[in-house]
Amino acid sequence: MAVAASTATPERVIVPKPKWRPLESERNLAWLLLLPTMVLLGLFIAYPFMRGLMLSVTDSRVGVPGEFVGLDNFRKLAVDPIFHAVVWNTCLYTLVTTIFKLALGLWLALLLNRTFKFKAFTRAFILLPFIIPTVLSTFAWKWMFDPTFSVLNWMLYQTGMIRVAINWLGDGDLAMLSIIIVNIWRGVPFFAISLLAGLQTISPDLNEAAAIDGARPWQRFWHITWPLLLPVTMVVVLFSVIQTFADFQIVYVMTGGGPANATHLFATYAYQLGVGTGLLSQGAAVSLAMFPILLLIVIAQLLYIRRVEVR
Amino acid sequence: MIEGEAWRRWVYFRIPLALFLIFLLFPFYWMVITTFRPDGELYRPWRAVNYTPFWTWNPTLDHIKYLFSETMFATWMWNTMFIALASTVISLFCGVLAGYALSRLNFPFAGSLGTGIFITYLVPQTLLFIPLSEIIRNYKLGDTPWSLILTYPTFLIPFCTWLMMGYFKAVPKELEECARIDGASRWQAMLYIIIPVAVPGILSAGIFAFTLSWNEFIYALVFLSSPEQKTVPVGVVSELIRGDVFFWGPLMAGALLGSIPVAIAYSFFVEHYVSGLTGSVKG
Fold first, then answer.
1. What is the pLDDT, as a whole number, of residue A6?
2. A147 to chain B nearest CA, in Å?
3. CATH of A79-310, one of 1.10.3720.10, 3.40.1130.10, 1.10.287.130, 3.40.50.1950
4. Which of A57, A195, A299, B27 is the most exposed place for a label (fewest CB within 10 A)?
5. Is A70 left (phi over 0), alpha (psi -120 to 50) or beta?
6. What is the interface pTM, i.e. ipTM, of the complex?
């Protein structure tokens, strides 16, 4: 603007010679401010991603550089029965835990959305499973599931629900159930608190108006609360699905992928191959195999979120 | 909000909430009680007649003593603290600057860079740990705290940037323009006007980043190997389990003590933490 004005009437406006201030240009300042971020993300995300792609098409092991083998690693995975189990386990684990986390988290959020004594206190305590380092709290669960000393077995036995000990982590299906329970336990607070924040943005007037018009609580939830909460719900689910799909800590501590590979997920199998047995390129191939699936999930959800928001 | 007869309040509100609290908090109670339970009681099968699960009459500090005398627990605590603080500071620095640039400056590719950072926000650590471990080795960073201090920002910066963008967007443009009219440079306006207004956001991002780095496991597990370099989660896993033998008493004591710093940090900044958490999922 100023420049345009000064060229139009050069004889009347005295333009003071500007000091050389490169940071006054938005573009220069922006690049300078973004530099540290781009360097770190480039070095430790973009570059490793390329290295991972390169690794996955060689046959490197620890200490052996390896030769180019094309898509051999992926071909091996396609016929590897453990990898098939890994894909199935991961999908099952993600689907079941997400459904339960959403249902329980929403329920808990609705409970917390009321006014009651010690509300702030309760809310602070509810987030604990999400705050405390997962590995450490998972050990408490592993101890609770211990076949010989299990307090859960004791409770079930005392209440008459079981007669013989349940070997929680020794049986494939039960081990799967156990890790699913722990994941739900860890994820419910995140869902509850995020959804609660969403609920608090919904004006109570809407619910009151509907109540005056005679809507039942269930109808009010279904026609008012749920649609208004949907954008927040979708984002929360997106985050949770990605974290769950790529989960490592819970399975590593609880079962290590066992018994007999019954609970391996992508990450634990990649760890076992890449770090445990030193088959670097195979491990890299397993964890990269997550990428297309994650990408599909992200794209699908982002498109859906956009559609919901436009509506 | 709560109306109707008393039984409705119990059935629809108090009992479900109590059950949720028991489900969510019982493992921590179990952690605490195990920490103070003597070994004789600890290894008593659940079928035993004198199995008293929920209380102990002979509390002991043996497990905690074991932790400090037989393992390097104090060192692990210090390592974790140092790594978490250093990576949080780095991430805040980068995240605040990047968040400012992406939310308040016009420049080419701003939109696509923002999207790019959002996508790295969604890259899980388990996707890259194998190639990254190679890179760490090549840079001669293996088995040093720097291997974690430099890699943790990869999942903290996107989060901090995202959160700070939200805060910066909420600061009215006029505030900055006033300062510019008064002769402040862009740099000064950012440093003295905008960033101070966003301090609550910086606190939220910081406390969230601190808990995330305290919680991180797989990078620490893969990059660190000697006991004196380990972080609490990795140290507990690798030094308190020998083969098939779990040292449950010290394990639970380690889990309890290892959680305390995060719990304290969290309890001081609950509100900031919650706004960080909910800010991180706001699109």
1. 45
2. 9
3. 1.10.3720.10
4. A299
5. left
6. 0.91
